[in-house]
């Protein structure tokens, strides 16, 4: 199977990342709400625990929508998605010292980690949209840490809104056959 055909399967099965980014956005926005109106601890707990359920909930939403919930066995990109997930999981250990040093840097640091996590998605999906999402998350993480870290939750709000926007842009790109401007 050629790489472009494998990427097309990824885009098609996962609807340009729509369901995954939608679930991720919900997790980030729930964490943002908890951080704003409850406590940083409940917010961090929601982000970390919710993060473990992003992929299973994505698969559930795919099934409920009547779509396949996994790539066919022969797709050579099958293992890349899992590898990218584990890189994020292990890199999240960096959030422990960051949060202990300056709690309000938790979400800016998470924005940077998740933004970096989306860079391989450019290849996985064959969509430049993920480069834009990665750049926006990386820039937001840096800017919030530098200029808006007197409040705990802005990184969570920005992350959730960026992911929500990306979910709909990804879905639109897959539906629109003229989506060459966002696809690689």
Shape label: elongated
Q: Indicate the mean pLDDT.
A: 93
Multimeric state of these chains? single chain
Number of helices: 9
Task: Provide the gyration radius in Å.
Answer: 16 Å
- The figure for the number of domains is 1
Topology:
Elements: H1 3-13, H2 18-37, H3 40-52, H4 54-64, H5 78-91, H6 95-101, H7 106-126, H8 129-147, H9 154-175
Task: Report on this structure.
With about 180 residues, the chain is an all-alpha fold. The chain has one domain. Helix 1 crosses helix 7, helix 2 runs antiparallel to helix 3 and helix 2 packs antiparallel against helix 9. The longest helix has 22 residues. The protein is elongated and about 50 Å long.
What's the gist of this structure?
With 184 residues, this protein is an all-alpha fold. It contains 9 helices and no strands.
Main attributes?
single chain; 184 residues; mainly alpha; 9 helices; 75% helix; elongated
